[in-house]
Amino acid sequence: MNRIDERFDELRRHGKKALIPFITAGDPDVKYTMDAVRALESAGADIIELGIPYSDPLADGPVIQASSQRSLKGGMNLDIAFDMVQNLRVNTSIPLVFLIYYNCIYQYGLEKFIEQCGKTGVDGAIVPDLPYEERQALKPLLDDAPVYFISMVAPTSAQRIKEIASSAKGFLYCVSSLGVTGERQAFDSNIDAFMEKVNLYSVVPTALGFGISEPQHMRRLGYLADGLIVGSALVRRIEQKASDRDIYEFMRGLRMALDECMEQTMENNS
Ligand SMILES: O=P(O)(O)OC[C@@H](O)[C@@H](O)c1c[nH]c2ccccc12
According to its UniProt record, which residues of this chain constitute the active site (predicted)? Predict the structure, then answer.
């Protein structure tokens, strides 16, 4: 069984939601990332997204773009990222998901990429520039892979939501709002209706991302999905040279807000 499925099963049994932080692998270096993964895990993260830096990251806002640049400058590449995962796997079984642009996979070779994910312990891959339609051509390879290729839906996906959601694996990445990644103050009120639709059709747990950055957002959005994703808010702290302790504290604050919001929902329902 994939570690992602195991984790969501466990969360469901405990009535909890997944907290999914994103960091760029190798920003500013591999050692920092490895320490950050441990800090995030001990603060209560459930799944960790590791960004593979790319020179032309079209879906990324300025904060994550800058972090990609720092990581590339440090010499990060896919081989080093796989080595890093192999080293992390010596003492953690937290689900790890790569956020990777298709061009990087293409250059590396899709079959080799899948094989290395299986060997080193990468449980999922989010490929923001691989549209659902194009994935169909790769289906035979992706379907048998030990690594889940995570599907994404956005409020614009309208008629496609049903199709995408009903064939997803691991979890379904729900994009809260259009545009690029980055911290936000407020969320569109349509988000409730969007998530209602997604939850209706999804055969796997849903995770909501884009703009989520504060404890208050955990409370506002926690009940809409099975998990929440936080990227730029964390990456900005890393840019400001956050210590392990800072990373731990920030994640802990989000964890507590998310758990509180679930306890309240459960009390209201009982
Ligand atoms: O940074 P935000 O707004 O918190 O959004 C999450 C996001 O960073 C992460 O999942 C991500 C990083 N790069 C991406 C590219 C496309 C989709 C998603 C991502």
Answer: 49 (proton acceptor), 60 (proton acceptor)
Catalogue the E-assigned strands of 93-211: 96-99, 124-126, 148-153, 172-175, 206-209
CATH code for the domain of 14: 3.20.20.70
Range of the domain at 90: 3-269
pTM reported for the whole predicted model: 0.97
Ligand 1 atom at shortest distance from the alpha carbon of 233: 4
* Of 248, 258, 181, nearest in space to 16 by CA: 258
Give the number of residues written for the chain. Answer: 270
Cβ distance 99 to 51 under 8 Å?
yes
Is residue 267 scored above 80 in pLDDT?
no
Q: Which of 152, 206, 210, 217 gets mutated to test ligand 1 (max ligand atoms within 8 A of its CB)?
A: 210
Instruction: Output the residue whose Cα is nearest ligand 1's atom 13.
Output: 60
**Chain segment 59-108, per-residue pLDDT in tens:** 999 999 999 999 999 999 999 999 999 999 999 999 999 999 999 999 99
Could you give the number of structural domains in the chain? 1
Residue minimizing CA distance to atom 7 of ligand 1: 231
**Distance from the alpha carbon of residue 51 to the mean position of ligand 1, in angstroms:** 9
Contact 177, 184 (CB under 8 A): yes
Q: Give CA–CA dist 115/213, Å, rounded.
A: 34
225 with 258: CB under 8 angstroms? Answer: no
Cα–Cα distance for residue pair 257/17, rounded to 1 Å: 11
Is-contact 18 228, C-beta < 8 A?
yes
What is this model's ipTM? 0.98
Cα 73 to Cα 59, 66, 149, distances in angstroms: 20, 11, 28
